[in-house]
C-alpha cells in the first residue's frame, strides 16, 4: 500500500512538472514608442506631416505552450499607441503649423509562433487589434475608424527564472471612413510567470 501511494505521488508530481514545462501563464506590462504614417491616407489626412512618436503603455496576460522548443504564445493586452502630426492652421502656402496628437486605446490579441533555445526566444505572428477609444487633439474620433484591424508582430525575448523580457516591432493598418493609415510601434515589456517556467 505504501509503495502504491509513493508511486501515485511520483506519477502525479512528474505529470505536474511536465505540464509546467509545456504550459506557462503570466502577467506582462511595459512601454512603447509609436507613430502613425499617413503616406497612403486619403481625404483630409493627406495634408498632415508626420511629426514624431509618442510613448504608449500596455499591460496584459500571456500564455505560452512549449513543445520541444517550439512556442505558441497567445496574449490579451490592453495598450495605448498613436503619433504626432504637423497640421496647417489654414490653407495658405505659408501657413503656420500646430503639432497635434492622435491616440488609440486598443485590446490587442497577438498569436505568436516561435522557437526557444536555452533562455532566448524569437517569434512572429498576427495581432488582432480591437479599438476601444481614439482621439485627435482631444476630439473623439473613434467612430471614424473600424472597430477591429489586423497587423503583425515580430520580436525576441529572454527568460530568467520566472522573469521575461521582450522587444517587438508591431505594424497595424487602420481603416477609417476615408481610407487607411499605418500605426507602428516598438514595444518593450517585462513579464512574470505565475505558472510554468
Description:
This protein is mainly β and 197 residues long. The chain has a single domain, classed as Porin (Beta Barrel). Helix content is 11%, strand content 69%. The chain has 1 helix and 10 strands; from the N terminus they run αββββββββββ. An 8-stranded antiparallel β-barrel has the order 1-3-4-5-6-8-9-10. A hairpin with a 2-residue loop joins β8 and β9 (163-176). The longest helix has 21 residues, at 2-22. The chain is elongated. The model is unreliable at 3-7 and 9-20 (pLDDT under 50).
Structure described in brief:
This protein has 197 residues and is mainly beta.
Q: Key features?
A:
197 residues, mainly beta, Porin, eight-stranded antiparallel beta barrel, 1 helix, 10 strands, 11% helix, elongated, disordered N terminus
What is the CA-atom radius of gyration, in angstroms?
22 Å
Query: What is the helix tally?
Result: 1
Quote the average pLDDT: 84
The percent of residues in helical segments reads: 10-25%
Question: What would the principal axes of the Cα set say about the shape?
Answer: elongated
CATH level 1 name: Mainly Beta
* Helix and strand pattern: HEEEEEEEEEE
The portion of residues forming beta strands comes to over 45%
CATH topology name, in short, is Porin
CA-CA gap between termini: 34 Å
Beta strands, count: 10
Strand pairing plus helix content: what structural class? mainly beta
The largest sheet, given as strand count, sense and whether it forms a barrel, is:
8 strands, antiparallel, barrel
Name the poorly predicted regions.
3-7, 9-20
Strand order of the largest sheet: 1-3-4-5-6-8-9-10
Shape-level CATH architecture: Beta Barrel
The tally of structural domains comes to: 1
Amino acid at each position: 500500500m505504501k509503495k502504491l501511494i509513493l508511486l501515485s505521488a511520483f506519477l502525479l508530481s512528474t505529470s505536474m512538472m511536465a505540464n509546467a514545462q509545456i504550459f506557462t501563464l503570466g502577467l506582462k506590462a511595459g512601454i512603447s514608442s509609436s507613430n502613425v504614417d499617413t503616406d497612403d491616407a486619403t481625404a483630409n489626412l493627406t495634408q498632415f506631416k508626420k511629426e514624431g512618436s509618442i510613448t504608449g503603455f500596455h499591460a496584459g496576460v500571456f500564455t505560452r505552450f512549449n513543445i520541444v522548443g517550439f512556442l505558441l504564445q497567445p496574449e490579451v493586452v490592453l495598450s495605448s499607441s498613436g503619433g504626432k502630426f504637423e497640421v496647417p492652421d489654414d490653407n495658405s502656402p505659408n501657413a503656420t503649423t500646430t503639432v497635434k496628437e492622435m491616440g488609440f486605446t486598443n485590446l490587442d490579441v497577438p498569436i505568436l509562433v516561435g522557437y526557444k533555445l536555452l533562455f532566448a526566444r524569437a517569434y512572429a505572428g498576427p495581432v488582432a487589434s480591437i479599438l476601444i477609444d481614439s482621439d485627435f487633439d482631444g476630439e473623439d474620433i473613434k467612430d471614424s475608424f473600424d472597430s477591429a484591424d489586423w497587423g503583425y508582430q515580430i520580436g525576441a525575448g529572454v527568460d530568467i527564472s520566472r522573469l521575461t523580457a521582450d522587444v517587438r516591432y508591431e505594424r497595424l493598418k487602420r481603416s477609417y471612413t476615408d481610407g487607411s493609415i499605418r500605426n507602428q510601434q516598438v514595444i518593450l515589456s517585462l513579464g512574470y510567470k505565475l505558472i510554468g517556467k
